[in-house]
Specification:
alpha/beta, Rossmann fold, 3 domains
Amino acid sequence: MAGVSVAEERAEILAAQRNDDSFATLWDELQWRGLVHVSTDPEALSELLEGEPFTYYCGFDPTAPSLHLGNLVQLLLLRRLQLKGHQPLGLVGGSTGLIGDPRPTAERTLNSRETVAEWVTRLQGQVSRFLSSEGENAVRLVNNLDWTAPMSAIDFLREVGKHFRVGTMLKKDAVAARLNSDEGISYTEFSYQVLQGFDFLELFRQYDCVLQSGGSDQWGNLTSGTDLIRKVEGRSAHAVGTPLITNADGTKFGKSEGNAIWLDPEMCSPYTFYQFWLNQADADVIDRLKVFTFMSRAEIEEYERQVAEEPFKRAAQKRLALEVTTLVHGAAAAQGAIDASEALFGRGDLTALDEATLRGAVSELPQAVGVVGAPVAQLMVEAGLVKSLGEARRAVAQGGVYVNNAAVESEDRALEAADLLHGRFAVLRRGKKTLAGIVAG
């Protein structure tokens, strides 16, 4: 959006978001979208969502410098409740982040206090981008270090720990998995559920917070809070566990060659982010539209029809990629990713791409390091476009090799300074679809 600041664009994105009024209740919509895997009393929750405004929260631990797609599920659930008029709390765990929730297989490496504090600030900025800071139910950011740091170990054990039963704690899925592993589990990670339960109790006391959401793999931690509130305050509170998003083949969603799809553009470029959504399988794309966009049921059902009748057009994937990239990175970045996709395959102008977009695009390609004067044929071999110099020369002779979409007309063509876009990058293409990037050495 030319002439529009980042803050103004973010405000426009939030202002355009709506829950779908074709559903009788918000709970019905959440279930249709596949956002509820497990919960406390569903009937009571449905009534709660339709009633007077209440306060709810989700916690995000700073175990990395950015949130990822799994966190985005929670942020969008928080936003849907905010659109209903309820009051969100975005908790970034300055204390729980110093420990980390137990992983199924191995102990986490503890990060320094300075690192965790820096990551808290970064994650707070990300959380605030997806929730409105305007109006009576503006998001409030909280840090659990504020109420845990002042407590002594003795006070914590007396006031909080005494309400937890070890037998119950041992039955939690994450704890049980670690107990049965060779790694075992430390007391530090074993105590994580006590800290999270205390968070819910403290937010209940400070803000009358009555609902916590999280991934279904966190269910034991979520219910530690509802149980603690019941024992200490004699009141009931609620929890909702969203499903762990997986692909149709059962593999974990949000992983790209072993790396998470981060929301920070420096850790996952908008181009890479866009391509991730564009490459969703037909079997998955409709579910992704339900979870990750604010498109209406009618719109999504129309795309479902198109996937069934005209899958080759990949209309649903294109819409999904546009919607989610715009949501996370803004309209300009989404358009830049589209332009880069077109330009890489000869349908647009590579020279028009800004450096960040081009860098993101090249990072997704097989690469070779090139210097001015290096033979293009040799670079093709080094980038893996061909297996030998002879094959490279034949491809050139047949008219099927391009540097930055310009045909290579001579087998002796060398890389020129003018080929290096932004002084750093060039794109080699063989045929219509086989690409490689050249990075200046």
